[in-house]
Design goal:
2 helices; 42% strand; 6-stranded antiparallel β-sheet; 346 residues; Immunoglobulin-like
Length: 346
Amino acid sequence: MMRRAVYLLLMISLVSVAEAGEGLRLRMDAVTVPPATGPLVFVVAHNAGDAVYQGQVSLEGPSGWRLTPAERPLELAAGETQRLAFNVADGRTAADNRYVFEITACDGDAAWTRRQEIFVASAPYFSPPIDGETTEWSDAIPIVFTSEGLRTTVSTHWSRRRFSLLVAVEEEQLLPFDPAAAPDQPFDAVQFAITPLEMAESAEEQRALRYEFLLVAEPDGPGRCFQLADPDTPWETFSQPRALEPLEVERAQVAVWRAEGVTYYACSLPFLPMRDTVRPSEGREFYFSVLVHDPDGTGVRDLGQPAGLWPSEQDQRSWSRWPGAVWPEPGPRANRVRWGFCSSLY
């Protein structure tokens, strides 16, 4: 049985994102565990080819998991995307928050299998102090991924009033933000975005449609938080670098510190400006993602990549530009990692 909370969210990290056959793309989406229906896991299939795809999709979970049905029929027109649901009859949690799934697509006599690693992507209910310590984060559900052998750990919490984030970044040194330096002087930072699900489906392309923030260290000080965008920020604004200091979030609680080769970015934001579109309540889903900027080390570390988003989901409109950022080519994936609020870790 699932033992974590009333509500859990599982996100998938693709080991391979190659296409099956002539343009069929497969990945996992989210697993929700609503009280009324029980846990479901979703396979996302997209037909990038020019012809109709017809076949079947089956899913195998970790040892001890039982999924139903055995397979789902799949018919996709050219350019179409579908989500196929599988019921989780038995699912056991793993202490390291890592799980392995296999998706198999069959088309006549041909079959393609994708082996994937998953992790839970959910914020338990709690409001940790932002005080330069990690002790109070022990009941979060950490997500760990590596970039060139260096670990990044992302943890989240929520309460009725605040959203809290802790990002632990293994790196050789910390380059702080210095407002007196040249505008294009690179520095380390954590950039993150919160997107309401209904806004993500909007056809509006000239507004940000998200809440987006930047956390930075200071040469002397606890750290700072800047708001790069809200849902109504126009394209011409967030697509161009602009001065950060006028964008500081006054009610943000921030702490950035170093310990044993790890830089910790902790932040707590008030929900009030967001609560009309991301209401803080158990079971609420939204999109979330994180970019770690390490210009003198690994470059940009993108949570969307281990979360399984396809390279084709890269979109320059998904992230705001700011002075000092060093962007990779091609750019990061869209901020479309499905996330959720749960009652507790247990």
